[in-house]
Amino acid sequence: MTSEAAYAELIRRTKEAAVLSSCGAVLGWDERTYMPHNGSEFRGEQMALLARMSHEMTTDPKVGECLGVLGDSSLAKDSPEAVNVREIRRAYDRAVKLPKELVEEIARVSTRAQQVWQEARSKNDFPAFQPWLEKLVTLKRREADAVGFKDHPYDALLDEYEPGATSAEVRKVFASLSAELVPLIAAIGQSKRRAKREILERDYPVDAQQAFAKEAATAIGFDFQAGRLDVTTHPFCSGIGPGDCRITTRYNPRFFNEAFFGVLHEAGHGIYEQGLLPEHFGTPLGSFCSLGIHESQSRLWENQVGRGRAFWEYFYPKARQAFPAALRDVPLDDFYFAINEARPSLIRVEADEATYNLHIILRFEMELALLSGDLKPADVPGAWNERFQKMFGLTPPDDRQGCLQDIHWSMGGLGYFPTYTLGNLYAAQLMDASKSQLQGLETDFARGEFGRLKSWLNEKVHKPGRSCRSDELCRRITGEGLRHEPLVAYLRNKFGALYDL
Ligand code: ZN
Fold first, then answer.
1. Annotated catalytic, 266?
2. Which residues have a beta carbon within 5 Å of ligand 1, which is an ion?
3. Using CA of residue 365, residue 371, residue 376, residue 377, what is the dihedral sign?
4. Cα atoms in the Cβ-side hemisphere of radius 13 Å centred on 60
5. What is the reported pTM?
């Protein structure tokens, strides 16, 4: 086989596997939006079949043969072909290192563990979940050993979500971030100023919420000719393929933030998916860079833009028209303060921009200790509460509001949490760079114009696909790799003004 033929065959197979798994994505979206309750067992069969077929396609020995032929071919460094080969090889090597029996065991245990976790959380019964957490930590440790790592088993797991990142680098950035955030949050806690949260807990009719959120998502650049917005319990964005990206939300008629900021968040993910190059669909060049970069796009639109003052100078008069009963007597300043209220709280998904990252840092530290064996699953509740008290000045009254609150561990998703804070860090760095490269962005926002920022993100972040690692992408765009300072400066500025610090 010539190297041209090997490359063509490799791309053909990779694209075909991607088309197949996109069929699974449609079924997955349907399962979480419209599928009737009794369809779940059969849907499970459909999904399992597709997952098995797509695993077989990506680990087919023919793929290994093509990669072998291309191994010592003379693809120009950083050429599109070299990028595709490098990333396909990376995924293939990882997949073939994992014994089939281990992959199946993790799938089986995590399916059951999610059910156990759900019940344990509702009954506040950590001991019921503990043996399953033990099993999952052992299995994930075996996965890390099979994949291989240099310094810490965590690196092997993190690499799946954030290619190239290491726990040592993440630990360093998170430690610097935490050292700045803890005193900032304490100062906010001591401020005499209080937001009027009650403003957001008035009547917000669902129809009006939906129309308003769609208007905002359209304004920032989500294309509804190539996407949909539907209702679900746990919101997500699914980029099915070129021309088809599904975002979801949930509406609370007595709370404004949930759907509105949820839609901006998912639309940010969606704009990234819609910005990937369709001609490269299914190959690394047409895929997102990493989960951290994906999250940077959702957080940038949700927080940096959507919770900003300029954004609401344009949208607040519209919000008052959409929700006259709730907002008639509310000045913009009060509304802006309310949507940006910061205070230590127990639940990660309800946390504000300032405290959110501490929730992630706590989970990251615990995951490191679980994988290295320094922390036994039985000691998780005590360790959680002790760390929580140190970081937030609060102790969870029960495990339901403490170590049992998130689904990730029950899914075997150790290594996933850091990508949320990496997203916040990258979002702040990207926003700074966009503001220095494009003059007058805030003036655009105050006029309801977001096109220049969106095009800039399309060019700089979306079109490169997976051509380089997240840290390198950040360096190319901003001149520097991952740093904590821009996020800290942004939070200090914003909350300093709101809380008079
Ligand atoms: Zn997200």
1. yes
2. 298
3. positive
4. 16
5. 0.96
Mean pLDDT confidence for 138-164 = 96
Task: Using the mean position of ligand 1's atoms as its centre, give its distance from the Cα of residue 500 in Å.
Answer: 30
> Which pLDDT score is estimated for 391?
92
Say how many Å lie between the CA of residue 295 and the centre of ligand 1: 5
If you average pLDDT over residues 405-409, what whole number do you get? Answer: 94
What pLDDT does residue 440 have?
A: 97
Q: How far is the CA of 452 from the centre of ligand 1 (A)?
A: 23
pLDDT at 48: 84
Tell me the C-alpha distance between 345 and 354, whole Å: 11
Instruction: Please say whether the beta carbons of 385 and 394 come within 8 A.
Output: no
- Identity of residue 58: T
Contact 277, 285 (CB under 8 A): yes
Positive or negative torsion for Cα 485, 488, 494, 499: negative
Residue 113 Cα to ligand 1 middle (Å): 23
Give the span between the Cα atoms of 385 and 347, in whole angstroms.
13
Using DSSP's 3-state secondary structure scheme, residue 228 falls into strand
pLDDT for 55 equals 84
Q: Name all contacts of 286-289 with Cβ < 8 Å and 24+ positions apart.
A: 286/465, 287/87, 287/465, 287/466, 288/239, 288/465, 288/466, 289/461, 289/464, 289/465, 289/466, 289/468, 289/469, 289/470, 289/473
Catalytic residue among 266, 273, 295, 341: 266
Q: Which of 414, 464, 458 minimizes the C-alpha distance to 434?
A: 458
43 half-sphere exposure, CB direction, 13 A CA radius:
17
Q: Give the pLDDT confidence score for residue 363 in this predicted structure.
A: 97
Give 28 Cα–ligand 1 centroid separation in angstroms: 17
